[in-house]
Design a protein that fits this description.
320 residues, alpha/beta, nine-stranded mixed sheet, three-stranded antiparallel sheet, 12 strands, globular, phosphoprotein, 6-phosphogluconolactonase activity, Glc/Gal-6P_isomerase, 6-phosphogluconolactonase-like protein, 6PGL
Length: 320
């Protein structure tokens, strides 16, 4: 496997990660909802605060970033869809149609579970520039347990984000979760969730893969991302399906579904959010030994140029 080191943004504490991820998400939102197509070579995040952070360059050497930003600054993206009002009637008609499409644009984001939910809750709920009512939220994976259980990704997200939005009187996003009645049949649950994706990303015959504006992932100490585990070669090598069942996960609930590597890597942006010293050894392995073929290393390579990592210093402590 070709060595591919993504952009890595490191922060002293968890709060810095949460705020930077919020900046990154909102930047992706703004680009998705504007008429400007996202730049696939840009996976940085913007910040208008004075938080301090650092970017790890391709050699994994940590360098300080200006105190004015906790990540590389990004130019503010403004809509370029304005058409002259002096155009002919046919051009005015085209302009109206184009504006209608812009109004109807949605921000399509996939999220995994675990500590990522806390990062999003802490970083996004306090912001006033999140256009929640224009969000379509999908799940990168799901543990097939009742939503009321602590292992349910949707259940955690509902408690930490969606219920709190309602309590704050903020608009609600559209949330696409699994059919809870199918938790005893992983294959059927996967098939039904794939149908949900097909419905939202057009007919599968005309769209090879769904195209998310942003795909957010964590990474567990054992190296699994979403519910793609390091030694599950069948899932790792899946090329056609959008969603697959996982019957014997080696940790946590054994029965799951997960979106596949091709779906993840087809996204406009893929971002990993990792924190804590317990993740340090796996982060080192991912970054320094890509030939091991860990799921995150595969994503780093296949989505090269569109991948970013947001980590605290503890998670990066074993990288040279």
């Amino acid at each position: 496997m070709t060595t591919t080191v993504p952009k890595i943004y490191s922060f002293e504490e968890f709060a810095g990660v949460a705020d930077a991820v919020a900046d990154h998400v909102i930047n992706a939102q703004n680009q998705a909802l504007s008429s400007i197509s996202p730049n696939n070579n840009s996976s940085t995040s913007s910040s208008s605060s004075s938080r301090k952070g650092s970017q790890v360059q391709s050699e994994l050497n940590i360098s300080n970033i200006s105190n004015k930003s906790n990540t590389e600054s990004i130019e503010t993206l403004n809509s370029s869809s304005q058409l002259s009002s002096t155009k002919s009637s046919s051009n005015i008609s085209k302009s109206s149609s184009k504006k209608e499409k812009i109004v109807n644009k949605r921000f399509k984001i996939a999220i995994s579970g675990g500590s990522l939910i806390s990062v999003l809750s802490q970083g996004l709920l306090k912001r006033d520039d999140v256009q929640w009512d224009k969000w379509d939220i999908f799940f990168a994976d799901e543990r097939l347990v009742p939503f009321s259980e602590k292992d349910s990704n949707y259940g955690i997200a509902k408690a930490e984000i969606f219920d709190k939005l309602a309590a704050q009187g903020k608009p609600s996003p559209k949330v696409y979760h699994i059919d809870e009645s199918l938790i005893n049949d992983a294959q059927e649950a996967a098939d039904e969730y794939e149908k949900t994706l097909i419905k939202n990303f057009a007919n599968k015959d005309s769209v090879r893969l769904p195209l998310f504006d942003l795909f957010l992932l964590g990474c567990a100490p054992d190296g699994h991302i979403a519910s793609i585990f390091p030694n599950d070669h069948e899932v790792l090598r899946e090329k056609l399906a959008w969603v697959v069942p996982v019957e014997n996960a080696p940790s946590g609930p054994s029965r799951r579904i997960t979106l596949t590597i091709p779906v993840i890597c087809h996204s406009h942006r893929v971002s990993f959010v990792v924190e804590g010293a317990v993740k340090a050894s796996i982060v080192q392995l991912i970054m320094e030994r890509p030939e091991k073929g860990l799921p995150a290393s595969v994503v780093n390579a296949l989505a090269a140029g569109r991948v970013s990592w947001f980590v605290d210093k503890a998670a990066l402590s074993e990288c040279y």
